[in-house]
Specification:
Layout (H helix, E strand, L loop, with lengths): L1 H10 L9 E2 H16 L11 E2 L6 E2 L1 H13 L3 H21 L7 H16 L1 H6 L8 H19 L2 H14 L6 H18 L5 H26 L5 E3 L2 E3 L17 H12 L19 H22 L5 H15 L16 H14 L4 H27 L2 H5 L6 E2 L3 H9 L1 H4 L2 E4 L5 H9 L3 H7 L9 H5 L2 E2 L2 E3 L9 E6 L3 H9 L2 E5 L3 E6 L5 E2 L2 H4 E7 L6 E2 L5 E4 L2 E12 L8 E6 L2 E4 L1 E3 L2 H7 L8 E7 L8 E8 L4 E9 L6
Parallel strand pairs: 7-9, 7-10, 13-23, 15-23
Antiparallel strand pairs: 1-6, 2-3, 4-5, 8-9, 10-12, 11-12, 14-17, 16-17, 17-21, 18-19, 18-22, 20-21, 22-23
Helix pairs in contact: 1-4, 1-5, 2-3, 2-4, 2-19, 3-4, 4-5, 4-7, 5-14, 7-8, 8-10, 9-13, 12-14, 17-19
């Protein structure tokens, strides 16, 4: 029943709460989709042991666990989040199993209590409702600690091998495990040596599978630390990142504030509302004194085990928690980065509850206290569920940092409309806009990289690589391209207002709006009566453009430079945009201040009526005419004229 409740609370409205999808979820999900269908990630790296993600890297285990789900169910929030939930369910039984290493009715009751706490504590709910790679470290840590404790208890080589495999898998969940796991194992071996339960065969059984699984990740660190070429290890790629983040953990971070942040992130809350909710904390505030009592009880058991030279599983969880806190003090801490510390909390909390109940000598009072404790946690859990699932959470945190909505609905709308699908579409900037588009359109990574060539040595490559694909552009143009569509999320009031004020029609969808432009809704101005236009260079008095005469070298590119000024005579204001269409390409004029025009006409509003075109010379090849288009969005007017292109020198 407890397991069913745990599964329900994690699956209920999983695609809707939290709002949107985290940018790292989207990146990992698209990589998983690429691996499932093409055997490469978005950068065309075959089965990388460490993903590049957005340049700084991402642990790969979650993506590989996602492969069957995105293969079967497609790329969606559900398929991205299911692997984390299923691994959590496995950890739920391992978290209960640690207590079953003891025997008797009390062990079974502790196991049930531990499972119940892993079901109702906020951290275990929130962290496993988001498909982020780092959150797997908590689930795998619970599994590893159980298998490690079991191996020591049963003293079998096969049990140590299983623990070694779990430890190796743990390294693929999150990068801080590279520090946490070695330190923990050294301290564990010291403890086992002190109680004389350390055998060489067991060390080998633990160490060999761990070393084998760690080898590819060690190779990744060597390649990036010494800036070596990328390499292959069988079918797997030893990834070379272009943003190596090796310095994110270190003693230089250690301070009073870092200690405070680490402790708060584990036991209270952090600054990210998809990790923690302040009214409830990570473990409910009622748990804090009980955890303190549990720590004291476990320290006593730990000390007694050393004195009696017998193993106690509580020692593993104390050491694990201490190592996690110590590492957290040497980095910028938050709850998802230190999520694995939560692996120790259910054990400490159960020990604290049992120690508190033991203070009641009368059996009847002890039962009443146990029932009251259960009632308090059920009340806290009920309040949490009402807040989280009842609408208050989604209303309060409608748009969280790093979260955006999938683009499927908006892209489908554009592609299904004959006019929209033939035009350029701009998607207003969200977190890594390109990855949301790739995930929505399910673009082959080979097609994407064929158009957007990735060159690690180019320092600007990432901004170029993610600028657009096909007819889609990621970000808003300056000035507006009136002959294009725009996808804007409902939270972007600035872009939405600009487009509406510029005469675009809004087609409102669930989370985004698609804006289209209808030129028929604008007034066609009379060229002679309503347009003031004069060319200073590039176009002669006969309205003829001579590319050969006006070619200059601009930024090492042969460019045709056109200079002039123009304004809307009817409304006596500069045009909002001026563009010249040459062939199928449109080039927008840069605004230039023309003080002499404003002074001559006595109108300061015309100060920026100047226009400057810098157009690649090759654009004019084989072209005999171009179209000049002038747009006044505020007054909803436009004017256009053909410009003749002469490919010969005019006297």
């Amino acid at each position: 029943m407890v397991a069913c409740a745990a599964l329900f609370v994690h699956l209920f409205q999983i695609t809707k709460i939290p709002n949107g999808i985290h940018v790292d979820e989207m990146g990992m999900g698209y990589d998983a989709w690429c691996l499932a269908h093409f055997g490469v990630d978005r950068y065309l790296k075959a089965y990388p042991v460490y993903l590049m993600n957005f340049g700084g890297g991402q642990s790969a285990l979650y993506a590989y666990l996602c492969i069957p789900f995105v293969k079967w169910f497609g790329l969606s929030p559900l398929s991205i989040r299911l692997p984390g939930i299923l691994l959590y369910m496995i950890s739920l039984f391992c978290g209960a199993g640690i207590f079953m290493l003891d025997e008797g009715e009390m062990a079974r009751r502790k196991a049930l209590a531990g499972m119940a706490l892993m079901t109702v504590l906020p951290a275990f709910i929130l962290l496993f409702r988001i498909g982020m790679d780092c959150n797997l470290m908590l689930a795998v840590s619970v599994i590893f600690l159980y298998l490690m404790a079991r191996a020591v208890r049963v003293q079998r080589v096969t049990a140590y091998v299983a623990a070694g495999i779990a430890g190796g898998v743990l390294l693929y969940t999150y990068v801080i495990s590279y520090v946490v796991l070695p330190v923990f194992i050294v301290l564990l071996l010291v403890y086992l040596l002190s109680i004389r339960q350390l055998r060489f065969c067991h060390v080998l059984a633990l160490g060999i599978p761990l070393a084998v699984l760690a080898a590819p990740l060690i190779a990744v660190q060597v390649v990036n630390l010494f800036d070596l070429p990328e390499a292959q290890m069988g079918p797997f790629t030893i990834t070379r990142l272009f943003q190596y983040r090796g310095g994110e953990i270190g003693l230089n971070y250690l301070s009073v504030q870092s200690v405070k942040d680490a402790v708060m992130s584990i036991f209270l809350f952090d600054g990210l509302r998809y990790n923690t909710l302040i009214p409830f904390g990570t473990v409910y505030y009622v748990s804090l004194p009980l955890i303190g009592i549990g720590i004291a009880a476990c320290v006593r058991e730990f000390a007694g085990s050393i004195r009696k030279r017998v193993f106690c599983y509580q020692a593993l969880y104390l050491v694990w928690l201490v190592v996690m806190i110590a590492v957290g003090c040497c980095m910028e801490a938050n709850t998802n980065r230190l999520n694995a510390a939560m692996a120790a909390v259910p054990v400490l909390l159960v020990e604290g509850i049992w120690q508190t109940l033991a203070w009641f000598r009368d059996a009847r009072r002890r039962r009443i206290a146990a029932a009251a404790t259960a009632a308090v946690y059920l009340a806290c859990f009920g309040a949490f569920c009402i807040y989280y699932f009842g609408g208050s959470y989604t209303d309060t945190y409608a748009k969280m940092e790093y979260f955006d909505y999938p683009l499927e609905e908006a892209v489908t709308y554009v592609e299904s409309d004959p006019l929209c699908s033939a035009q350029t579409t701009y998607i207003s900037a969200i977190n890594q806009t390109y990855i949301y588009y790739l995930g929505a359109a399910l673009v082959s990574p080979f097609d994407f990289n064929r158009e957007n060539v990735f060159d690690r040595e180019d320092p600007l490559i990432y901004s170029k690589w993610t600028a657009g694909y096909g007819r889609y552009r990621f970000g808003m143009p300056e000035p507006l391209d009136w002959n294009a569509n725009y996808i804007v999320d409902h939270n972007n009031a600035v872009c939405s207002s600009l487009l509406r004020e510029s005469g675009f029609t809004e087609h409102r969808l669930t989370h985004y709006s698609v804006y289209t432009f209808d030129l028929n809704a604008f007034e066609a101005l009379d060229w002679k009566a309503d347009v003031a236009l004069a060319w200073d260079a590039g176009v002669n008095e006969k309205n003829q453009l001579t590319p050969e005469q006006n070619t200059q070298l601009v930024n090492d590119v042969e460019s045709v430079v056109l200079v002039g000024w123009s304004y809307d005579k009817k409304y006596r204001k500069p045009w909002d945009t001026v563009c010249l269409q040459v062939g199928n390409d449109r080039y927008y004029a840069e605004r230039v201040q023309r003080e002499e025009i404003a002074d001559q006409l006595g109108n300061e509003a015309l100060l920026e009526c100047g226009m400057l075109f810098v157009i690649p010379r090759e654009a004019f090849e084989h072209q005999t005419s171009a179209e000049l288009m002038l747009m006044d969005f505020g007054s909803k007017g436009y004017a256009r004229e053909r410009v003749e292109i002469l490919h010969e020198t005019c006297n």
